[in-house]
């Protein structure tokens, strides 16, 4: 049991870390050499030029202006200054709504914290249960416990305060959640209604086109929609399986990078031509001249790519039974996306086409039966991942301990016995095995989601986020609360009665308060402050800059702006919601730590979204129902835990009062689901019709067909025309300048999305060829 | 523990009962006087005239033809003879598919029974565990137990046979279920596609029309659909709140019946004019001349009805914010029903309009928030109904026992002490309290569903069926398996661990086999045979015939054909599926009893559907997903129970093999849900377009507007024109004669649906007035 002093020391250390990170950031961001690391978003938007072009040699790399150091904290007001509508224009609705999650945390927990400090802390403090039990017993207690529910004697009437507070907190949380859901639904509809013409407004993705012996997929699609949507069908674009081509292009790019590196190396030191080996990773095999070898390789690949490109365009096997079907009006597309087409509900599946850059092309051709089998496999695999992931980790750990190494590799004995090496192995290796697994976890979850067959990057990230949350809940929260691995818990929960489980957790909760306070400070305070420092991109940028960069274009590609990373970020925030709601009634001391986290994270991520992160797709806040649902889950969980705790506290007569809480909360969730969720899933016809009518009045002669012709071709075919595209992009971007600036655009390449390569949704009229027809 | 002999006696008795019922039925149905009781369906279709019109006086009432008594069982082949397509024409798809539930039972259990008798019975029989334990222990056992899994020694390798069989049965059940789902989906689509033009194909029910200060509901609806479905909107019909009017009309009808009764009484005995009392139920109050009094009452009501009718038509308060909107094409209606109209997803809710006679008019105007609160209330109420229903029953029982009566009503002491009265009270009263509750249960459940706000009778019945099944499962099945009331079980399940619950049930299952065998015989065999006798309608018909009937029309109204009663019938069948699946592996002796039930019930209900039941609505087998889901639930439950049983049998190493079964079964359910369920929920555009095109080619000049004008007016306004309607109805019916007949139609009144009164969907062009516009 930690005392206030212990907590104070931990808090001091973490505040020190956080401040150190923030100061380091404040200094590093002012150096011109780091400009592309800390302001990549502005480069990507073409609104910032490198400050390395003007001034003396030294001032190109180091900021010598002492005045700017004085104002080293002024990024905070800068980050907060941009109003929300401008933020939506600048970084998209997804980012703006993502920030609102932190705001929601503040909205929920500021009144909750005030109320619980005003009422619960005095109620808890003015008892002496713990002092008494210490006097008679050997029980250790701390000042923090004196402020918590543990200090109330068994069966005391004071527990009614906690029950009333549980009602008040539940009511307040639900009220805030409802307001937020309504607000975000309105924002989403407004965003969808006020945005410019986009190809996905007119387009529907059709999957599982049935094979027809007499017709090609393209003909089959055309006939089907001409018959069943005669007044609305406009055109379509079949999906081509260009996965192999994409792989070849990627390989070529990597070889090109190596070639650049060797050429740069040679140009710096002309005395010796660089060499490489032909085998695996350049580590084994014959030694050859690196530049010649890579050049030959690239030539071979170029030829192969050209061949593959021809094959893909002509071979009917590469045409997948899926197509993007475009309609004359938004109304027609809305109708087709929401209705069932065929009497066999697994054929002619229609759904809104995702944004072109949001599409995950590899999954477009999975048939229905395969999809449902994949879902089963992943469900089983995920179950094992949650409950048995400790097995391989433990195995690695058992290999990596001193005795294990000594037994398996006796020849290392001499080295191991050096005290320093020994302590490193004992102290670090077991932790590292677990750490590596946890670092790999988001990737593993993303691979699982991809295997499951989702069509768009946003859906992949949402599914991964759900899985990550479940993993966190079981393997971070529950494992910390009740000692023992997840599997041991599963086993003991199976053998415990249903009303004993919340009791087990409930009893453990107050005892773990100090642990979670430390967790919040390490992961929440220092971790968030570390995020703004961007140490990894900083190092990688300078390494690339030194070894690879020759042109401005290379330098741009060396930037790694990153993205919000919904699949890892959101589940972490949710853990704080869970902790806050669980501890709100039990240990009110906990709440200020959560508040500091939400405030800090809000400021930091607002800064990052404005200045750093690249928006990879725009799903118009489609993730909000997930966020809402998980907070509701945390709320219900906290109520069950409180019930369990109360029943051990001799306040069992309160159970009937508490049982109404989860019932009402779940009902509230169902109500919200019906009232607001459709706005995130379907597109109302009224809106579509309104936009159609407006557009018809404004642009009666619009040639929609040519506008849509190339919107949905595979990005690999768009890359062909990078060079001609550039000027168009610049034009487009200058049209859309939203934040006034005096700087000229210097952007050279479009920003690649992490998954689908380059693909600019606003550029349908530049790529000249249409491989689908 | 019952022996074979005990079972034999019980079987013999129940067979005797069943045969007695069947013989009584065979004799009664041949009497002309009962013709309307046993063949009402044919009267309703207008295809049968009363045999009482020809022949001598005696032969009008009693069948004197001895030859017909010899062939007294020939209703069985008659019932089986009608082919399924004809049955669908005759009694609707709902009835035909309902019969297929029994067939499905046979399809599943015949191979299962054969396999288990061929393999499991020998495997169980050739052990001597029970004989041994009897020798050493005091354990009683019977021959039936020797055939069950109880006879296998603990930890025996023979349990692998049971595991393999569990896989085989699961596989076979799923295979059969899938085939059946596919078949019924096809039947439904074929039925919907091949049926004649019906108003509901073109019509969508719109609810929650937002109030508009400047426009009436009718104008608001028209403008909204003219704007948002400009090419497809045709006309609409606002919903009028005529509940009060309907109540008045009903009251008038009841008074009219009494008047008829008194007039008949007076005409038979002219010496004394009948008198009645004006108070409650004619039991108290002033004594008056009955005929004059009722005539005056009817006159008053007639006036009130006329006033109310005027008020309803003009008062804007009676217009509810709901409307039936009709479209030019089926395609337009399909689109509108499946899409979201407004940005607020709780306004302008659209769904397929039910058939006119399927509509439950009272619920059309419930707003969204009220609906979701009602759902919460009913969910809580249903929970209490399931787990606490014994409290009022026990209370009544405690009042109704000897000691209770003696204490509370000492003046009855003399009567109670008569031995005969005493034994009656002791033997019957407690049972009667429970029985009355169980008889009332379907009505209570139906009231709950009505309160919940469903729009159509079919939906009400489906929801009631689900509730009834849950009630049966908890309060019949579980309560029988584990002694103790449902509430005691809930309590003990809350205090038991999750893996102990299936074990508790699993251990009890084999011991209860004989109880359930008796249950099947009493409820299944004798009960079904009793159904065909129709004792209650028989008595009521003759009573009405004697006291009320004056004209042919009255006699027709005195018929009570009844209906399938999906809300009570289907949950009962499901109980047999549950029992069959649970006992298939454990006690194979059970299966033949189930098979007899399914065979007998199939024949009986086929006969009833052909000759008796009146089809109240046609939902085109919309209930099948429920049926499928409940069988899947029974399958998963049986697998869990088997796992529990195995783990107590020293065969715990089999758990990993068995755990795959529920996982695979649930996956199968999800697969089927995705693959087939949409066919029961949505209407594919392809089908709609096909029918539209055909119709346009066949009848290019169809005046759809006049066809649809009066389809969806409240039945109360249609009744006005009963007399003019009749001839049209006859015409229509003769067009649609499907079963060849030589008899002339004698039908005089249309058949009222139990809930919504008369409303003939095929009669849109006869009612001249349109109260909605």
TrEMBL record, chains A, B:
Location in or out of the cell: Membrane
Record has Transmembrane helix as a keyword: yes
GO CC annotation: plasma membrane
Listed InterPro entries: Csc1-like, CSC1/OSCA1-like_7TM, CSC1/OSCA1-like_cyt, CSC1/OSCA1-like_N
Domain spans labelled CSC1/OSCA1-like 7TM region: 374-646
Record bears the keyword Nucleotide-binding: no
Domain CSC1/OSCA1-like cytosolic: 201-363
Membrane topology: Multi-pass membrane protein
Record's keyword terms, sorted: Calcium, Ion channel, Ion transport, Membrane, Transmembrane, Transmembrane helix, Transport
GO molecular function: calcium-activated cation channel activity
Chief site of localization: membrane
Domain of life of the source: Eukaryota
Residue span of region Disordered: 722-773
Domain CSC1/OSCA1-like N-terminal transmembrane: 7-179
Transmembrane segments: 6-28, 101-120, 376-400, 420-447, 468-487, 575-605, 654-672
Compositionally biased residues, Polar residues: 748-762
Family: Belongs to the CSC1 (TC 1.A.17) family.
Protein name, entry field: Calcium permeable stress-gated cation channel 1
Organism: Handroanthus impetiginosus
């Amino acid at each position: 049991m930690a005392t206030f002093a212990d907590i104070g020391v931990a808090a001091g250390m973490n505040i020190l870390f956080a401040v150190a990170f923030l100061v380091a950031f404040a200094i590093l961001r002012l150096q011109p050499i780091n400009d592309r690391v800390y302001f990549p978003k502005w480069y990507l938007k073409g609104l910032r030029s490198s400050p390395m072009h003007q001034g003396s040699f030294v001032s190109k790399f180091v900021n010598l202006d002492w005045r700017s150091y004085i104002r080293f904290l002024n990024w905070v007001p800068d980050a907060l200054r941009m109003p929300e509508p401008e933020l939506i224009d600048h970084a998209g609705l997804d980012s703006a709504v993502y920030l609102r999650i932190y705001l929601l945390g503040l909205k929920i927990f500021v009144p909750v914290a005030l109320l619980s400090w005003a009422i619960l802390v005095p109620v808890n403090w003015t008892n002496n249960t713990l002092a008494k039990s210490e006097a008679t017993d050997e029980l250790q207690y701390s000042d923090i416990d004196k402020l918590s529910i543990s200090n109330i004697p068994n069966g005391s009437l004071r527990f009614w305060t906690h029950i009333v507070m549980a009602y008040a907190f539940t009511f307040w949380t639900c009220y805030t959640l409802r307001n937020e859901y309504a607000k975000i639904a309105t924002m989403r509809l407004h965003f969808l209604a006020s945005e410019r013409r986009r190809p996905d407004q007119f387009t529907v993705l059709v999957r599982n086109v049935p094979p027809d012996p007499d017709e090609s997929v393209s003909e089959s699609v055309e006939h089907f929609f001409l018959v069943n949507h005669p007044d609305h069908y406009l055109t379509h674009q079949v999906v081509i399986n260009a996965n192999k081509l994409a792989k070849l292009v990627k390989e070529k790019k990597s070889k090109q990078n190596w070639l650049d590196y060797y050429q740069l190396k040679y140009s710096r030191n002309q005395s010796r031509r660089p060499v490489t080996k032909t085998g695996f990773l350049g580590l084994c095999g014959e030694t050859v001249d690196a530049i010649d070898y890579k050049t030959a390789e690239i030539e071979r690949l170029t030829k192969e790519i050209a061949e593959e490109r021809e094959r893909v365009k002509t071979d009917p096997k590469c045409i997948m039974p899926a197509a993007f079907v475009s309609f004359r009006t938004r109304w027609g597309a809305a109708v087709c996306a929401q209705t069932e087409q065929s009497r066999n509900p697994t054929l002619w599946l229609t759904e809104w086409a995702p944004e072109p850059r949001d599409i995950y092309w590899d999954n477009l051709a999975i048939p229905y039966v395969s999809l449902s089998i994949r879902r089963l496999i992943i469900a089983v695999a995920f179950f094992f991942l949650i409950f048995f992931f400790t097995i391989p980790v433990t195995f690695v750990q058992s290999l990596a301990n001193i005795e294990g190494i000594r037994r398996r590799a006796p020849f290392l004995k001499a080295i191991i016995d050096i005290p320093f090496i020994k302590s490193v192995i004992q102290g670090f290796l077991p932790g590292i095995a677990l750490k590596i697994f946890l670092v790999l976890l988001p990737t593993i979850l993303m691979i699982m989601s991809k295997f499951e067959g989702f069509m768009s990057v946003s859906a992949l990230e949402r599914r991964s986020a759900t899985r990550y949350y479940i993993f966190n809940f079981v393997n971070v929260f529950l494992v910390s609360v009740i000692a023992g691995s997840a599997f041991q818990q599963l086993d003991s929960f199976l053998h415990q009665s249903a009303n004993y489980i919340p009791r087990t957790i409930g009893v453990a909760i107050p005892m773990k308060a100090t642990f979670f306070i430390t967790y919040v400070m390490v992961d929440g305070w220092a971790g968030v402050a570390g995020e703004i420092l961007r140490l990894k991109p900083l190092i990688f940028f300078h390494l690339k800059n030194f070894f690879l960069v020759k042109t401005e274009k290379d330098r741009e590609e060396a930037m790694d702006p990153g993205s919000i990373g919904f699949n890892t970020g959101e589940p972490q925030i949710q853990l704080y919601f869970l902790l806050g709601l669980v501890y709100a009634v039990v240990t009110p001391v906990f709440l200020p730590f959560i508040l500091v986290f939400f405030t800090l994270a809000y400021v930091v991520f607002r800064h990052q979204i404005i200045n750093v992160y690249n928006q990879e797709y725009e799903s118009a806040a489609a993730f909000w129902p997930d966020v809402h649902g998980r907070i509701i889950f945390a709320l219900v969980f906290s109520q069950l835990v409180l019930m369990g705790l109360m029943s051990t506290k001799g306040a069992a007569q309160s159970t009937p009062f508490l049982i109404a809480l989860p019932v009402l909360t779940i009902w509230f969730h169902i109500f919200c689901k019906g009232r607001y969720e459709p706005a995130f899933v379907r597109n109302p016809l009224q809106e579509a019709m309104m936009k159609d009518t407006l557009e018809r009045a404004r642009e009666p002669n619009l040639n929609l067909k040519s506008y849509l012709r190339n919107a949905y071709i595979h990005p690999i075919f768009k890359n062909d025309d990078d060079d001609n595209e550039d000027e168009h992009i610049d034009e487009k971007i200058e049209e859309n300048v939203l934040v006034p600036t005096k700087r000229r655009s210097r952007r050279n390449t479009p920003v690649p999305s992490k998954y689908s390569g380059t693909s600019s949704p606003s550029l349908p009229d530049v790529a000249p060829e249409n491989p689908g027809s």
